[in-house]
């Protein structure tokens, strides 16, 4: 469950949430629809699908936007754009050179892992890279029966000539959208190491907790998901249904989870998460104070 690089048992978090679409939305299929030029992603029964990868991608973008305010590094998967040196998989030459420089022998894997942690930005440590698995996962959205009229809507569009600022003749198209009012349940899980012996790992735990908490609070106020959001599509909000955790450093909690799959319900999660954000702000910005 935990490796020598952390030297401690983890805490596993599980957030059960619901995503409510306030407007029509679309996740494109990349193919034509049944009667339109641009279809949406649907299951065999024709019901719109909300992939976990789409949710996680937008959630990561939200975390990247919040990173600077919380003193968290984010490479944005672009070293030149962000100015953050990170082994995110897009600079494999640097990684190969470092790997070659590490001496052969038993400590090699541990040393390589340590160097990867040092050379990876905080956001990539949480979400993962092509060379290192992430600690956060988001499930596919599961459609609730409420708000689904079993009907996909069709909308029209035209190609705009950017030089002339007018519609191009003969280039009208249409596309599918899923209707407003659809609700999807999903689950967010992540693992952290609050008892890590190394100071940096304890700091990483606080950064991750504050970042996830801040992103979820922001999503609760509303966010955009899917394609054509600049046209008003995909406006949604998140509702947290429950927050659960398992502390594997607590023998009773660990035993209940491993034997009976029982989670520990976190009742005061909002106050606890606010505390994480305030603590991280105080750590990253000395003298910072958060007032109600």
Structure description:
- The strands form two sheets. Strands 1, 2, 3, 6, 7, 8 and 9 form a seven-stranded antiparallel beta sheet that branches. Strands 4-5 form a two-stranded antiparallel sheet.
- The two termini are 39 Å apart.
- Helix 6 (199-220) crosses helix 8.
- The protein has one domain (11-86, 121-284).
- Helices cover 33% and strands 22% of the residues.
- The chain has 292 residues and is of the alpha+beta class.
- It is built from eight helices and nine strands.
**Secondary structural class:** alpha+beta
Helix content: 25-40%
Portion in strands: 15-25%
Helical stretch tally = 8
Structural domain count: 1
Main β-sheet description: 7 strands, antiparallel
Low-confidence stretches at least 5 residues in length (pLDDT < 50)?
A: 1-5
Report the mean per-residue pLDDT as an integer: 85
What is Rg? 22 Å
Written as H for each helix and E for each strand, in order along the chain, the element string is EHHHHHEEEEEHEEHEH
Distance between the termini: 39 Å
Q: Specify the overall morphology.
A: globular
Number of strands: 9
């Amino acid at each position: 469950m935990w490796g020598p690089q952390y030297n401690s048992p983890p805490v596993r978090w599980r957030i059960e949430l619901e995503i409510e679409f306030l407007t029509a939305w679309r996740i494109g299929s990349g193919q034509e629809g049944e009667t339109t030029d641009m279809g949406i992603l649907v299951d065999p029964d024709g019901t719109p699908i909300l992939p976990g990868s789409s949710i996680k991608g937008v959630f990561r973008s939200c975390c990247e936007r919040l990173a600077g305010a919380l003193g968290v590094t984010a490479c944005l998967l672009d070293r030149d754009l962000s100015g953050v040196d990170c082994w995110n998989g897009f600079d494999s030459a640097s990684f190969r050179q470092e790997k070659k420089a590490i001496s052969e022998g038993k400590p090699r894997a541990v040393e390589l892992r340590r160097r990867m942690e040092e050379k990876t930005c905080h956001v990539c440590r949480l979400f993962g890279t092509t060379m290192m698995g992430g600690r956060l996962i988001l499930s596919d959205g599961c459609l609730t029966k409420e708000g689904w009229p079993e009907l996909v809507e069709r909308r029209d569009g035209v190609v705009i000539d950017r030089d002339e600022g007018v519609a191009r003749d003969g280039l009208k198209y249409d596309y599918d959208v899923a209707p407003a009012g659809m609700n999807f349940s999903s689950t967010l899980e992540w693992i952290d190491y609050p008892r890590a012996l190394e100071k940096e790992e304890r700091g990483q735990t606080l950064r991750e907790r504050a970042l996830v908490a801040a992103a979820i609070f922001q999503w609760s106020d509303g966010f955009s998901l899917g394609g054509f959001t600049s046209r008003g599509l995909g406006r949604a909000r998140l509702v947290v249904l429950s927050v659960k955790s398992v502390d594997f450093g607590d023998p009773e909690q660990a035993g209940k989870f491993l034997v009976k799959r029982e989670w520990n319900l976190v009742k005061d999660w909002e106050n606890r998460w606010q505390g994480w954000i305030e603590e991280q702000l105080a750590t990253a910005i000395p003298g910072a104070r958060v007032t109600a």
